[in-house]
């Protein structure tokens, strides 16, 4: 084993191992490969000195260059915030309607609003803001509390029927099933409302229905059922329904109304963020 | 034979040189590099190579500086790869990213072109136009300038380091590095406005990537052209390994004609006087000495040979001096070579060049000498046809291609929105591409959507049948488009229709098919 043996044909040293007369050559590594390998060792030593490398009990060596990916992330976040600060300042000092008039500012606000919406609003209103039963679709052109960007801003800032905010949007539809109207009258109202929205097929006793509607409903929903955004009375004369447009649902809503709650975002989100949200929601296609 | 001058009197030098891949010492795998000192050749092929070198280097260095007026809204650099704005400019052609298949077509043409050239004249790409060959040639010029020709270089190489050697080596390597810098420097000008970038470069204002690219290309040029040279061709390049598939017996390739050269003899006169049969090869090794690959062409076709034809020049010179026919080494096809071989073989399968010689000089008529007409044959014609068909196809498509385009993406969330007036609204992200460097006025219309109206985002109060807008030159205009329709006028929840973007001034229209979606309930 220890004796050096040179293979005659190739001139290479053998390992001394022999199987059935076949000897294994001990061909040396190619030099370029070896030098590359040594180079990586030298590099690794330098790297361990310059960068965080060796794990200690509670931390790791910090390295001469003081590199930290966490600090890098913070720095890039700071950079991003610094780049946005002029826009944010302008949004802070502008009315929402002024923001949407400024094309560049509106684009910035919409982008910010879109990402905020995904985080705070999409749980109820859906990621496409299309809403669902009990949660308003924000893409359409019906607005319970008004569809100008200022009104949307107020709704987001103060919420709807939100106990923690004194300026919150508030109304409450009486439960007409609790002895105010008879079951027949409620059924008549449901048919009448369906007629208003041009989806009803039942013949309706119009004269009586007009009277009941004018006495009980018109104050909030408008004489023609076109809604009253000032009071948060939804329009009844179109095919858009918050809780559903079939007769049973409407009967249930008149008898014992459900009252949705939306939290106030003032105090939880910055004013600039709420303005961006308002601009985004206003720009979904139905803003007035 | 007898009236030819002797080797010595003809001033023919014998070179002491071995081919790097000599059969006797050849290793199956990589072997440590053997130094080679290519001698300067002169002759028609060398002149042709100078010409090609001048041409290719000029094209490479000058192209980024050519200007081409495209008006106020596009760069005026004739050839520019504008990565930041995703545009490729080539004289009158402007290519957008989605038209990248033109570049793919160019690459296919280059590939078929390589087949064509290789099947006709062998590895002409390797021998004349490959950047590796051209730059090695350039580096050799520098080497000869500072260190002299072959013998002087060998002598210098053997010396121990001394001031003279150090000065020459330093000068050589410095100029090599300068060439490397110039090479890397020229490359980056293809990717930005050349005069501006040069200004930035010298003021150290250029982006880091520019300096990085120059540094990398300087290193590769210096290493490949100066230090590795023939090693790149032999060990790194795949082309020598696949070229055999493209050659056939009718391809012209640099060939040693042993049917007239063998038996070779260093002392031809003496051997002839002794009554031995002697060939034209006087074994002076001039062909090996000039070879930039350091090989011996007389060993036959081999993968190291880049067919630069410098051995032809060297041998023709020797043949001239000896008063013999040129072409002992020549461009020949394997077919012709085999015919000539059969003519020259005697009964004992030994080469007897006297069998192919004619009385009074020259060769017998049956001998096939270099015939350039072998270039034209079915295979090369087929390659050419394919090559030309792709080229013509691309030219046709290029001349007919659209310079106005529209891409539409339908909103998926929500797919449709019910509006208070009983209609449904669909939202689209529309991108209108103006691929000309000028302003254009276009009109958007819808076709095939009964009762369909549209408006741009923020203009819901004014639904329209046609929207007119102005496109910026060479830009994409993204617009948010809303389309509303009454389900009473539609046949079902999914309606296919077309959007047209029409430029009346230039008479160009771009169209896209889209869908209008409404809920099933609206049709019950």
Helix content class of chain B: 25-40%
**Rounded mean pLDDT score of chain B:** 89
For the termini of chain A, the CA-CA separation is: 93 Å
CATH architecture of the largest domain in chain A, by name, is: Orthogonal Bundle
> Given the C-alpha coordinates, what overall shape of chain B results?
elongated
> What's the average pLDDT of chain A?
92
Largest sheet of chain B: 5 strands, antiparallel
Please give the order of strands in the largest beta sheet of chain A. Answer: 1-2
Using a beta-carbon cutoff below 8 angstroms, give the protein chain pair with the largest interface and the number of residues from each chain. Answer: A-B, 21 and 17 residues
Low-confidence stretches of chain B: none
Structural class of chain A: mainly alpha
Count of DSSP strands of chain A: 2
The gyration radius over C-alpha positions of chain B equals 34 Å
Provide the descriptors you would attach to this structure in a database record:
heterodimer; A: 288 residues; mainly alpha; Cytochrome Bc1 Complex, Chain D, domain 2; two-stranded antiparallel sheet; 11 helices; 2 strands; 46% helix; B: 524 residues; alpha+beta; Immunoglobulin-like; 3 domains; 5-stranded antiparallel beta sheet; 4-stranded antiparallel beta sheet; 17% strand
Describe the structure.
The complex is a heterodimer of chains A (288) and B (524). By secondary structure, chain A is mostly helical. Chain A has helices at 31-50, 69-93, 96-101, 103-120, 122-125, 149-158, 183-196, 206-216, 218-221, 247-255, 271-282, and strands spanning 14-19, 22-25. The mean pLDDT of chain A is 92. By secondary structure, chain B is of the alpha+beta class. Chain B folds into three domains: 35-245, no CATH class; 253-370, no CATH class; 404-523, Sandwich (Immunoglobulin-like), CATH 2.60.40.10. Chain B is 38% helix and 17% strand. In chain B, the strands form four sheets. In chain B, strands 6, 7, 8, 10 and 12 form a five-stranded antiparallel beta sheet that branches. In chain B, strands 11-9-13-14 form a four-stranded antiparallel beta sheet, with no helix packed on it. A three-stranded antiparallel beta sheet of chain B has the order 1-2-3, with no helix packed on it. In chain B, a hairpin with a 4-residue loop joins β1 (79-82) and β2. In chain B, α2 runs antiparallel to α16, α4 packs antiparallel against α6 (163-188) and α6 crosses α8. The termini of chain B are far apart. The A-B interface holds A 30, 100, 126-130, 137, 139-142, 198, 235, 238-240, 283, 285-287 and B 30, 411-414, 417-422, 425, 427, 457-458, 460, 482.
């Amino acid at each position: 084993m220890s004796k050096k043996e040179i293979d005659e044909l190739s001139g290479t040293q053998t390992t001394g191992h022999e199987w059935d007369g076949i000897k294994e050559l001990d061909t040396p590594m190619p030099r370029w490969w070896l030098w590359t390998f040594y180079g990586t060792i030298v590099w690794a030593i330098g790297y361990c000195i310059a960068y965080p490398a060796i794990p200690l009990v509670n931390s790791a060596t910090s390295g001469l260059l003081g590199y930290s990916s966490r600090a890098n992330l913070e720095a890039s976040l700071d950079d991003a915030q610094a780049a946005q600060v002029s826009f944010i300042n302008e949004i802070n000092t502008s009315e929402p309607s002024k923001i949407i008039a400024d094309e560049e500012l509106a684009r910035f606000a919409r982008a910010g609003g879109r990402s905020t919406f995904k985080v705070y609003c999409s749980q109820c209103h859906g990621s496409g803001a299309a809403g669902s039963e009990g949660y308003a679709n924000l893409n359409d052109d019906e607005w319970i509390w008004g569809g100008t960007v200022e009104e949307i801003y107020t709704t987001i800032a103060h919420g709807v029927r939100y106990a923690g905010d004194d300026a919150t949007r508030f109304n409450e539809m009486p439960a007409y099933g609790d002895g105010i109207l008879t079951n027949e009258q409620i059924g008549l109202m449901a048919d009448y409302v369906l007629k208003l929205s041009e989806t009803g097929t039942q013949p309706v006793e119009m004269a009586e229905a007009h009277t009941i509607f004018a006495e009980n409903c018109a104050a909030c929903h408008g004489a023609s059922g076109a809604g009253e955004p000032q009071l948060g009375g939804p329009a009844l004369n179109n095919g858009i329904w918050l809780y559903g447009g079939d007769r049973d649902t409407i009967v249930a809503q008149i008898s014992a109304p459900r009252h949705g709650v939306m939290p106030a975002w003032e105090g939880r989100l910055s004013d600039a963020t709420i303005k961006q949200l308002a601009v985004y929601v206003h720009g979904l296609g139905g803003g007035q | 034979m007898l009236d030819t001058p002797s080797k010595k009197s003809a001033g023919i030098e014998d070179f002491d040189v071995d081919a790097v891949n000599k059969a006797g010492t050849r290793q199956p795998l990589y072997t440590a590099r053997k130094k080679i000192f290519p001698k300067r050749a002169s002759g028609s092929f060398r002149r042709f190579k100078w010409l090609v070198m001048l041409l290719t280097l000029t094209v490479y260095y000058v192209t980024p500086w050519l200007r081409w007026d495209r008006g106020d809204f596009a760069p005026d650099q004739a050839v520019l790869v504008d990565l930041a704005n995703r545009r490729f400019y080539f004289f009158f052609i402007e290519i957008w990213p989605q038209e990248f298949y033109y570049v793919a077509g160019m690459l296919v043409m280059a590939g078929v072109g390589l087949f064509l050239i290789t099947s006709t004249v062998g590895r002409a790409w390797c021998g004349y136009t490959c950047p590796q060959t051209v730059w090695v040639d350039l580096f050799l010029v520098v080497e000869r300038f500072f260190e002299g020709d072959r013998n002087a270089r060998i002598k210098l190489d053997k010396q121990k380091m001394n001031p003279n050697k150090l000065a020459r080596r330093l000068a050589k390597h410095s100029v090599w590095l300068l060439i490397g810098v110039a090479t890397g420097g020229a490359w980056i000008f293809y990717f930005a406005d050349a005069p501006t970038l040069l200004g930035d470069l010298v003021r150290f204002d250029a982006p880091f990537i520019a300096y990085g690219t120059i540094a990398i290309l300087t290193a590769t040029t210096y290493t490949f052209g100066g230090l590795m040279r023939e090693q790149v061709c032999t060990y790194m390049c795949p082309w020598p390994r696949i070229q055999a598939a493209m050659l056939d017996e009718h391809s012209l390739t640099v060939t040693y004609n042993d049917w007239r050269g063998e038996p070779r003899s260093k002392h031809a006169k003496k051997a002839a006087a002794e009554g031995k049969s002697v060939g034209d090869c006087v074994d002076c090794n001039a062909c090996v000495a000039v070879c930039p690959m350091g090989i011996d062409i007389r060993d036959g076709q081999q993968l190291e040979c880049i067919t630069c034809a410098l051995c032809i020049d060297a041998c023709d010179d020797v043949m001239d001096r000896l008063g013999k026919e040129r072409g002992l080494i020549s461009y020949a096809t394997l077919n012709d070579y085999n015919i000539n071989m059969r003519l020259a073989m005697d009964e004992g399968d030994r080469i007897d060049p006297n069998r192919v010689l004619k009385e009074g000089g020259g060769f017998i008529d049956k001998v096939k000498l270099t015939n350039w007409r072998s270039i034209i044959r079915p295979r090369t014609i087929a390659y050419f046809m394919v090559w030309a068909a792709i080229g013509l196809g691309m030219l046709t498509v290029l001349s007919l291609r659209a310079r106005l385009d529209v891409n539409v993406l339908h909103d998926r969330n929500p797919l449709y929105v019910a509006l208070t007036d009983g209609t449904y609204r669909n939202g689209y992200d529309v991108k209108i591409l103006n691929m000309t460097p000028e302003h254009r006025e276009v009109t958007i219309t819808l076709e095939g959507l009964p009762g369909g109206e549209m408006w741009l985002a923020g203009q819901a109060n004014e639904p329209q049948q046609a929207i007119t807008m102005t496109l910026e030159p060479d830009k994409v205009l993204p617009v948010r488009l809303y389309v509303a329709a009454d389900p009473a006028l539609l046949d079902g929840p999914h309606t296919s229709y077309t959007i047209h973007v029409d430029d009346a001034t230039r008479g160009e229209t771009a169209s896209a098919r889209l869908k209008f979606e409404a809920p099933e309930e609206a049709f019950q």
